[in-house]
Predict the 3D structure of the following.
Amino acid sequence: MFMRKIKPHWFLSLLMFAFGLLMTLQGFVQNYGGLVTVRFLMGIAEAGVYPGCFYLISMWYQRREAQKRFSFFFIGASVAGAFGGLLASAIGLLNGVSGYPAWRWIFILEGLLTCVLSVVSFFTISDFPEDAKWLSETERSIVLSRLVNDQGNSGKEQRFHPRDVLLIFRDWKVFLSAPLYFSLSVSAYGLAYFIPSIVATYGYSGIHAQLYSVVPWCVTLVFALLMAWASDRAEVRFPFIAFGLGLAFVGNIMLFTIHHNVQAEYAGIFLYLMGVISIVPIVVCWLSMNLKGHKERAVGIPWQVGFGNAAGIVGTFAFPSADAPTYKLGYGLGLGFLCLAAAITLSYLAGYRTANRHLPVRDKFVL
């Protein structure tokens, strides 16, 4: 809602700058209280970035074009995080410089880089089509007419009232979207945090463990983009979510049950990661592009992503070192939440099919 008022290039770049500044300050904290305070403020700064980006993307593209963009953004950010360990290892060479340990230099340098990129983002992030200054009036008319033909009027000129939030939350698809995203994110966060630890149990350590952790992410990047392209081409979401869930189930069960075959366990990581990570952006796009206009998306997308990201709390504690090398707790939690995701996905499909029976062709929901 704030992004509608102050425009995306201001909103997103300011949050990015605030996050980078706070990360830099984290490198200078001297006590636990200071660390908790900085981390809390970083969470506030970061909270608006993902839903804000998804919201902005959803207002530029037709439904049959959007999935590739959603997936490229999400997977790019995820893979960048996977390479974070390698970057941290390189920055670790600064250990002791100016009297600072390596961990401080990691936060200082990555925070400063984020601040610099936020300035670049201020000049490169586009506003909504109605406000984008780089469009001529003819180009703006073409873009908006394409979107109106596909989704109806965006309603950007409409005022937003507090009661609109309550009305939007009464929509079943908005309400259910959050636990669906949450249930997938438990596995996504667990894998993002602990793949290096899992790989270490296979006999690798140090830089080799980091390198073997990056390979599944690179394969997942290609696979997720292929899934997104096929989903846009077919103009459906459910079959691809179902396929991804199938891969995730197989990979999870392999990791849960196989403990003396490193090659099979490593293959399980690939399948589990490919399945989960490829469908998270599809789930977000499925909701986003079935919401109508600025009002619904300004509420529905942050609700889904914000609630779902709370799964990081679960994922952080899912793979305690005491469970190595089998990690029964982590894989068991992942399996349980995958079952929940499958149940909600089927409910979603049933709800959309029922609603489509009473809607004209242009207003039908994407299945």
Observations:
- The chain has a mean pLDDT of 85.
